[in-house]
Design goal:
The structure is a single chain. By secondary structure, the protein is mainly alpha-helical. It folds into two domains: 70 residues, Winged helix-like DNA-binding domain superfamily/Winged helix DNA-binding domain (Arc Repressor Mutant, subunit A), CATH 1.10.10.10; 125 residues, Four Helix Bundle (Hemerythrin (Met), subunit A). It is built from nine helices and three strands; from the N terminus they run αβααββαααααα. A three-stranded antiparallel beta sheet has the order 1-3-2. β2 and β3 form a beta hairpin. α2 packs across α3, α4 packs antiparallel against α7 and α6 runs antiparallel to α7. It is globular.
Length: 204
């Protein structure tokens, strides 16, 4: 029971900091100071440090030697021209492994993700849309059961999270459901795709 409470607190702190970053309240390049944040939330510095470690893995924060923790600065050019093509290639290879080694029934496990994405789009919640989008693509890697691919994918995606959020932040209210529709279309295509057709998939 105690471990569950601790885990819930850590997740709440992570979500709180993440939303401050996404909203721009914590701007790119600014320093994140542990003590003021701990006092603001009424938690220990140790709890803040645990959350920081997770957010560093997500690419939202970065530690600079002898200076402290800062909000990551994300450049659009490298992400669009280099990182996203790498991510799509990793996901296509993961799909190849799935098609070769598993039943297509595994794609039924996307139902919960699609439900969360649908809810997020209906609510027009940019943060929830971002996390559900990333979870959709992460599931592809996880189902492939390749720990190497997952490790590489995590590194790549850690640099894209803020950019995804920013792109959704500019969406008009009427456009939010297109996020769900695009992922639903991709999932339906994946379910009927062949190994030879993987490279033709337009992975969003």
């Amino acid at each position: 029971m105690k471990s569950t409470i601790i885990s819930n607190q850590r997740n709440q702190i992570i979500d709180y900091i993440r939303r401050k970053i996404f909203s721009g309240e914590l701007s790119e390049g600014s320093q994140l100071k542990e003590m003021p944040l701990a006092n603001e939330l009424g938690v220990s510095r140790g709890s803040i440090r645990e959350a920081i470690r997770q957010l560093e893995q997500e690419g939202l924060l970065e530690y600079k030697n002898n200076r402290g923790v800062f909000i990551s600065v994300v450049e659009d050019g490298p992400i669009e021209e280099v990182i996203n093509p790498i991510r799509r290639r990793i996901e296509r290879y993961a799909l190849k492994l799935i098609f070769q080694n598993q039943s297509r029934d595994v794609f039924d496990s996307w139902d919960d993700i699609m439900a969360r994405l649908y809810f997020a789009c209906k609510q027009k919640d940019v943060g929830l849309c971002t996390e559900a989008d990333i979870e959709f693509h992460r599931r592809i890697i996880e189902v492939s059961e390749s720990s190497d691919l997952l490790a590489i994918w995590k590194t790549v995606v850690s640099r894209t999270r803020i950019r995804i959020y920013k792109s959704y932040l500019n969406f008009k209210p009427s456009k939010f459901m297109s996020i769900y529709n695009n992922h639903e279309e991709l999932l339906n295509l994946i379910k009927v795709c062949t190994v030879s057709g993987i490279n033709k998939l337009n992975i969003c």
